[in-house]
Every structure is written in structure tokens, then in C-alpha cells.
Amino acid sequence: MADEQDHRYLSLRDQSATIPLQHLRYAVVSAEYGSFRRAAEALLTQQSTLSRGIRELEESIGVIVFERSSGGVCATSAGRDFLRTARSILEQMDALVTYSQV
Fold this sequence. Notes:
Layout: H1 2-16, H2 21-33, H3 36-42, H4 47-61, E1 66-69, E2 72-75, H5 77-100
Antiparallel strand pairs: 1-2
Domain HTH lysR-type: 19-76
Protein name: HTH lysR-type domain-containing protein
GO cellular component, one term: protein-DNA complex
């Protein structure tokens, strides 16, 4: 039983290791601003870097997170579910970092 749980953890860890936290942050901030350009400005990065990171994220999870238009971006239905979890992960990571500095 423990071997099965260890194997499951390792396979999940291998999959999640392919998603940089920065890509989650790009997606969450883009959803908040409704624009890759404005999100990139807020994160002090290039729009092309942010856009590429989100595209890589979408490819790695197999979900289109955003509908893109000339007016900005809007989360898809699946994207909204994904972003809810991504926000939670980022909040937990921020809390973990804050806690470890105490």
C-alpha cells in the first residue's frame, strides 16, 4: 500500500514539476487585469514573455485557460476552475514563504 501511494505521489510530482509557479502567477494576474499587456506591466515583464508562459501552461495542462480577443482576455469555463485552484496554490506558497521567514 505504501509503495502505491509513493508511486502515485512521484507521478503527480513529476507532472506538477513541469508547471513553473511563475506561469500560474502570469495566468492569475492576467485574469485579474483582463489583459496580457496590463498584466505584464504589473509584473514588470515583457508581454511576449507572459504570453509565452501562459501558452506553455495551457499546453502542459491541456486546457485553454483564456479566450483571446483584441479587447483583452477572458477566462474560459475550464480556465475559471483552473484559475481558482491556481490562486489557492499561490496563496499557500506565499503563506509558506512568509511562515518560513518567521
